[in-house]
């Protein structure tokens, strides 16, 4: 197959790309091009792609969109689905990538490209480093595919690909299709997927933490779907599974950024009898009525980025939504309403000291944080933090950009001391005695099981694992 590549990614005339022309091109073809969508696994030594994994909602949405015009095959390597060596049965190989599996995505792209296929790379890492990604594909999709779909699909049919597809503006979410889960469920390994059903209500987060990739992808945009659409999708899954009480996991970057929208959504969800969890900013969770509504609507877990107990660290990473004087109030409000907390804590900032670990331990134990998650500060490419820290970063081995590998030495302690305390904290928090203290009075559910698994996992940790 001969693939043409224009020298630039200049905007095409309006008449060149339109839904009408795309429909006409499809109608003129006697056969449909064949897509292979690939979710690659990572090679990290930590528990990223082990056990049950989440359904890749974004890739399923790509499959749903592409299937209107093309024949689509879906592979999730994390489940054990093999990646074919021979791509002769496909015209387009589309691969999604995060930083920690970029090398695997690139290897697949190189192999498919060598066989003359149209290779598309998308996801966070190709968006952040599109010049690097272009070396391993025909085209990079910058950000979301929905906003460049007409241009991309037209060029695929014509076989004339642009190096990068980047939207001048992002489409409203009202036009977003409901993902067709059948692509993921048809594999024999589908039982390895989590029972949590991924769903999306909003996109973007204007908070602008300097270590976060979201602002680069979406800018300061914050978009949301009509609440009726979200509720209809939940009802669809209730009907699909034949039961009312099912568990949803919101994939939103910050579902609570617009409080009025969030509260209206929860009021409607409260009528459904479902359970749910989400990543959430704590910028207004100190208000007891929010926590009460969350509990009443079926929330069983909120994932909160506490990040640090050091106010100078929070200031340095622009985490303005986090106020230390609200931390305990937020936790108390949620616990009073039966909502468990997955708390994220990062270490390795320049303001960290050995005391930071003790402060974090004390906070977790005092406030009975059910599921503490610890990570090492990782400057991801494409973020302001990466640009700031680049001269000090120890390596650029993308396989180790999993938030569990030591990236640079803080100003206030040696790397050896950082890792020694990092391991010690995890072992202490997940000791049997500490688990019993943190989980005292909590309902016997899956969170207990997670703690048991973390107890077994942390017992084996050594500082060398994180190098």
From TrEMBL:
GO cellular component: cytosol
Swiss-Prot/TrEMBL keywords: Iron, Iron-sulfur, Metal-binding, Methyltransferase, S-adenosyl-L-methionine, Transferase
Cofactor: [4Fe-4S] cluster
CDD domains xrefs: Radical_SAM
InterPro entries found in the cross-reference section: Bacteriochlorophyll_C12_MT, BchE-like, Elp3/MiaA/NifB-like_rSAM, Methyltransferase_Class_B, rSAM, rSAM_horseshoe, rSAM_sf
Molecular function in Gene Ontology: 4 iron, 4 sulfur cluster binding; catalytic activity; metal ion binding
Pfam families assigned: Radical_SAM (PF04055)
Domain spans labelled Radical SAM core: 189-411
Top-level taxon of origin: Bacteria
Protein name: Radical SAM domain protein
Natural source organism: Prosthecochloris aestuarii (strain DSM 271 / SK 413)
Lineage: Bacteria, Pseudomonadati, Chlorobiota, Chlorobiia, Chlorobiales
């Amino acid at each position: 197959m001969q693939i043409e590549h224009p020298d630039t990614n200049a905007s095409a005339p309006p008449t060149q790309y339109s839904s009408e022309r795309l429909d006409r091109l499809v109608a003129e073809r006697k056969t449909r091009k064949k897509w292979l969508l690939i979710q690659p696994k990572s090679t990290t030594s930590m528990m990223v792609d082990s056990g049950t994994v989440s359904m890749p909602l974004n890739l399923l949405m790509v499959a749903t969109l592409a299937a209107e015009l093309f024949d689509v095959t879906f592979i999730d390597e994390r489940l054990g689905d093999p990646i074919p060596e021979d791509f002769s049965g496909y015209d387009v190989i589309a691969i999604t990538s995060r930083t920690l599996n970029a090398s695997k995505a690139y290897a697949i792209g190189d192999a498919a490209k060598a066989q003359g296929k149209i290779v598309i790379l998308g996801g966070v890492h190709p968006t952040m480093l599109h010049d690097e990604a272009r070396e391993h594909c025909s085209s990079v999709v910058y950000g979301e595919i929905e906003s460049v779909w007409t241009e991309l699909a037209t060029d695929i049919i014509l076989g004339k690909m642009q190096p990068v597809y980047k939207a001048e503006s992002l489409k409203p979410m009202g036009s977003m299709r409901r993902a067709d889960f059948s692509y993921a469920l048809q594999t024999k390994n589908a039982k390895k997927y989590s029972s949590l059903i991924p769903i999306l209500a909003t996109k973007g987060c204007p908070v602008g933490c300097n270590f976060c990739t979201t602002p680069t992808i979406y800018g300061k945009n914050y978009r949301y779907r009509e609440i009726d659409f979200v509720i209809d999708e939940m009802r669809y899954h209730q009907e699909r599974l034949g039961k009312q009480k099912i568990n949803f996991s919101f994939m939103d970057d910050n579902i609570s950024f617009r409080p009025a929208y969030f509260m209206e959504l929860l009021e409607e969800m409260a009528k459904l009898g479902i359970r749910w969890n989400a990543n959430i900013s704590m910028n207004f969770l100190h208000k007891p009525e929010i926590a009460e509504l969350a509990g009443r609507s079926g929330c069983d877990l909120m994932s909160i980025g506490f990040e640090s107990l050091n106010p100078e660290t929070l200031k340095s990473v622009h985490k303005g939504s986090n106020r230390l004087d609200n931390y305990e109030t937020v936790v108390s409000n949620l616990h009073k309403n039966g909502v468990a907390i997955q708390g994220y804590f990062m270490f390795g900032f320049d303001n960290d000291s050995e005391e930071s670990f003790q402060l974090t331990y004390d906070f977790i134990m005092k406030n009975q944080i059910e599921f503490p998650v610890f990570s090492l500060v990782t400057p991801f490419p494409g973020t302001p933090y990466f640009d700031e820290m680049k001269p000090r970063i120890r390596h650029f081995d993308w396989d180790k950009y999993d938030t569990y590998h030591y990236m640079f030495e803080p100003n206030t302690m040696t790397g050896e001391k950082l890792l020694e305390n990092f391991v010690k904290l995890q072992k202490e928090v997940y000791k049997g005695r500490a688990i019993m203290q943190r989980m005292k009075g909590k309902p016997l559910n899956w969170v207990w099981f997670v703690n048991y698994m973390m107890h077994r996992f942390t017992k084996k940790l050594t500082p060398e694992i994180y190098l």
